[in-house]
Each structure stands twice: as C-alpha cells, then as structure tokens.
C-alpha cells in the first residue's frame, strides 16, 4: 500500500496517524500462516449467542434484501421495556465504537479537552484524536480506574467529556454502583461522563447504578457484543438524556444498524435464560483461568468481566515475551499497553477446550519468555 | 422526544438540522397502522440475494459471536480478483452511505466547496452539511445530470469534491462510459470526483468506464445493496487511488463491516449466475412498469437502474398527491424532491405480484389525485 498522503486531506485528517490502529486476529493468523487454536484476545463470547437469536437470524436470511428499520422501532421499544425507560432515551449504533465516534463528533471541536485513564479503551482515544480533541490521561489507582481523580482532572482542564469503563477493560476490575453514582453526581457543569458498561452484564450485582436517563451528567454505553455473544453483528446502544440522544440523528449513519443485528438482538433480548447461562459459564471459566495462572506461579486479578488479567510478576518486556510466545503456540490473547499494567496478559473466558489449550500453552510460553 | 438542544454540542453540531432526515417505510407503516402491500420505494432488490449468499449466511449464524476481520481480507482479495485490480485500491464500508461520510470527513473542512446536482442523492448532502462543507447545486440537463456543468462549477468555486451518480438516482438516467471518462479527465487539480455506481450492475454494457484505480481524479462507489440484494446487511465499497483508500484507516470504524455482510458478500461474488438472473428480472419489471404507466396515460422515463421514474404529466403538487394516494393504497414508493423532477414518482422494480399490486393501485391513486 502506498504510504504517501493524499494532498487533498483536511489539515486535521492529514495530522492523524497513517498506520492502521487496530490489527485483528485474522491478520495475525495470516502472518503466522496457521489459525489460532484458541481465540482468547478480543473478549468475545465463545459461549455463543442465545439459540433463539441464532434461530431468528437463520429464519430472517431471505429478508436481507430489505434495508433495516432506521429507527429500529421494535428493538428499541423492547429494550425500553426491558430497562423500564422511555425509547427516547435509547440510541442504537454499529457497536459502542460507532456510538463513541458519533458522540465525540457531536461534542468535541478541535482543542476541546477530554479526560480518560492512561491505558483505558484505545478506540475512544482514536475517536477523540480523530476529531481534534485533546486527551488528558489520569493514572489508574492500582488496578482500578480512579473516579475521583478523573473528576478532579476534568474540572481542572474544563473537559467536555470523561470516559470511564465499569467494569474496566483491560484490568477486569470494577467499582460498586455507589462509587459510580458519586462520580456521576460530581460531573462538572458542561461536562458529560461516558460510562462504558460493555461488560456490566457479567459483573456482580450492585455494579451498575440505577438508570436515571434524565440525568444530563452521564451517557451509558451497553452492547450485544459481550454477554449476548453477537460481536460479529455490530450492535450497541447508548442510554442518556433525550436531547443528547436526539442529537445523534444529526450525524449518524441512519441505516447503519443492519437487519441481521436487529433481528438477532430482539430475539436475544426475549430469551431470559441465556444471560444467566453465560454468566455461570464465565464464572467457571474465570476460576479455570485463575487455577491455570496459580499452577504456573502467576496471579490472576479479580475479574468482573468475561476475561481475566493475569499478572506475570515481572516487567512489561517479560509479559510481552509471554504474549508473543502464547501467540506462537496458537493462543490469541492481548495485553495492557501501558505500565505498570503491561506486567499482565489478558485472557478471554471460554469453553473447556479453549481453557485446556491455554493451560497447555502457558507453561511453554513462560519457559520461552525466561530464555 | 424533547426538542431542546444539548448545550454541550459543538457549534457545528448545534447548527445542524434537528429533525430526522430519513424516514423509513416501517415508520410510515406504523403511522398508517398496516403494512404496505408492496415495498417499491427504496430501490431494494425484491428478487433477493443469491441462494449461495443465503446458504452461506445461514451456515455462519453460529459464528456471529466473533468480530469480523477488520481488513475483510478474504472478501477484499476476492473483489480485487473480480475487478482485476490490487486490494490496496479497495475500501469496504457499512454501505456507500458510511463511505461517503468518511470520505467527506477526510476531505471537507468547514467552508470547503462541494458540487453536486440539485435533486441528487440527499445522504451525500447530509454528510457535506454535517462536516460544515458548502454545497453548490448544479441543475440537471433535462432528466440527466450534467457532467460538463458540474466540472465547470467545480472549477469556478474551487470545489474539493464533485458528486455524480451514474446511473442516476432518482431519475434512472445514465451517461455512457465515454462521457464519464471525459468528465474524469476534466476534474480540476485538487478536486476529487465521487462516481457513485450503486446501480451500475443493472445498467447497459458500456456505462462504466474502465477501472483505472491509479487515477487520483476519481473514487468509485459500488454496493452489494442493489443488484446483489443485500441492502439489509450494509456493505458497500470504494475503488480509488491507494493513498486515498489508505486514508480511510485514519477515521473509519474498523470493525464496522459486520461478519454476516462479509460472509454473504463473499458467497454472492462467487455466484456467476445471480446477477444475470437479476438483470433479466429487472428488464422484465421495467417493461411492466412502463406498460402500467402507459395504461394510465403516463410516461415512464428510460431506466438504467432497478427502478422506473414515471412522469405524472403535471406539477409537483399533483405528483405528490399521486404518491400520497399510492401510500394510502398500500404501495410504498418515493418521488424526486426538486422541480421539475418532482412531476415524477419513482417505483422500484419487483416481482410480478408487486407489479400487479402497483397496477391495481395506480388508477385509484390517479383518480384520488385529480379530486
């Protein structure tokens, strides 16, 4: 691919990094010449979607010639009933990623201040940079994001947006609802908290504050990609105050949430049994990952998500060698990018065969990393 | 929905229209309280996708827990082979709509000039306005877009983008490849022609100029939504010079082209028989629509697309009454928005039962419109 830059780009676009920021596991597989034995790097749900969602999608395949409803009326109303809120508080998008992009576009002009945690979700940072915002990074407090420090920095720099994921990715930690509610109540005037709850369906009871979609201080992000097992279809949603939700209509790709996603998500939402099933599987898998870590002299951090972050006990260079060796041994995994969290590797929960593949590969990866 | 505006929007976002710009047929069905008998308003392909695409999608449903390949490697390489060009010249997106949005974002800063035809694709205008560009409208020449006038206006206003659809929507007209090549050769320095070829698979041979993806004057837009019958899955693509194609990596939603779309499009591309089948069906349907128009004393315009634009023989107010009456009689259709083209209604091709429903409704709609 040519590495020259098109001279017609806007000054902002020309200033953005030219490298591809997100490399998928398929690219790694092509580079290594063979598929991974276990796909444990993207926090997908290998427990799959609800059988009802699969059946609904199969039944709907002949209808894919029709554009989807741009209002996603049936799904949005079902979600509103599910959450006990009005549909005007819900906006769907092509995954949380697309919603974050549109939200940043709506609120961030070049030079506007945005506060997030150093090492938190890189796609959010990508969007902020992409619209010319200025990122202010707050360190984690240990292995937790630091709500009070995020609020303090936002007040100090006059931020328009604060990003916090609860539970957190990549550390798997979480704050209880009371802590998050205190944070919401402290959001400065003129600022908005993005509360990314992609993993909240997998967290302990008491992690999510009660929904109050009339609050103008916070917008909540949820997804069908994690516990619901529909990552490949791209559907997430935002819950927030009606005027902010309505503002998405000014910039979004109105026909972007595809018909397969709407059909499958509606069926998934109507299945009361699947999330409890997935939660039980995830609890088992977290325990398996903790045991595997302990068997190899490593420490698994507590997790409120469908992944376990494992402290490799040394520095970032060592953990990076462990990760590389895992990849060489057929395990797709990832790791935190920023010290001191880069002492860890991050392993997605999965069924027994995937756990067994990881258990077999880890000792060999550790041996290779010691060399 | 609250109609107040969130005070935190950027000045640009606050300046954008607050109304929902695109109303889907499902919304109209909810308003009328009953489904349409025939869905002939969105230029979807009621002939459906290739049976191979349907089968591939059904087989892939259990895999929807996996994010799709953000590079869409297999599909992009298959498309490159299909078109006889290198993969570096192809960018996939969530429909042409998403590609237009990203392209405008890359090239248009507030105040930059953009040239299009008055009455052409409104979603393109939506994106230009959304990024603060200034739209310059050129009238059609009769029922055709006017390539020479578009080029002249672009030179006059120093446009960074020109938009032309060939074949055209909403008029169904087309220019031969030689005319379009002359236009490409005349694009001013510093300007880019967006050649929207969404309908080109349905046009006569000799409509598309030969692909020359090294040309920096043009980017071509194609889609699986029209002839391929996969509108609901949202997948389109751009063909252009490698540095411009690479620039999309700076702003796009990398995981946005969903797995269902990639699977179905790959299977559709591998079926050599489906497009000829669809083309034959569309030819039959165009003839049926022309007959129905003539039977009612109206004139069908020549069409190079999967829709027929019918001149209702009077002014815009009359055609609007015809359209409203058609909707009342269960026919979802649309019409051009700008005079003098708003003397017409626009009817999508479809199978015999849909044509029969339109044939039954049109005389009643015309009678109602005369009142």
From TrEMBL, chains A, B:
<dbReference type="Pfam" id="PF00155">
    <property type="entry name" value="Aminotran_1_2"/>
</dbReference>
<keyword id="KW-0032">Aminotransferase</keyword>
<dbReference type="InterPro" id="IPR050106">
    <property type="entry name" value="HistidinolP_aminotransfase"/>
</dbReference>
<keyword id="KW-0663">Pyridoxal phosphate</keyword>
<dbReference type="InterPro" id="IPR015421">
    <property type="entry name" value="PyrdxlP-dep_Trfase_major"/>
</dbReference>
<dbReference type="InterPro" id="IPR015424">
    <property type="entry name" value="PyrdxlP-dep_Trfase"/>
</dbReference>
<keyword id="KW-0808">Transferase</keyword>
<feature type="domain" description="Aminotransferase class I/classII large">
    <location>
        <begin position="40"/>
        <end position="361"/>
    </location>
</feature>
<dbReference type="InterPro" id="IPR015422">
    <property type="entry name" value="PyrdxlP-dep_Trfase_small"/>
</dbReference>
<dbReference type="GO" id="GO:0008483">
    <property type="term" value="F:transaminase activity"/>
</dbReference>
<dbReference type="GO" id="GO:0030170">
    <property type="term" value="F:pyridoxal phosphate binding"/>
</dbReference>
<comment type="similarity">
    <text>Belongs to the class-II pyridoxal-phosphate-dependent aminotransferase family. Histidinol-phosphate aminotransferase subfamily.</text>
</comment>
<protein>
    <submittedName>
        <fullName>Histidinol-phosphate aminotransferase</fullName>
    </submittedName>
</protein>
<comment type="pathway">
    <text>Amino-acid biosynthesis.</text>
</comment>
<dbReference type="InterPro" id="IPR004839">
    <property type="entry name" value="Aminotransferase_I/II_large"/>
</dbReference>
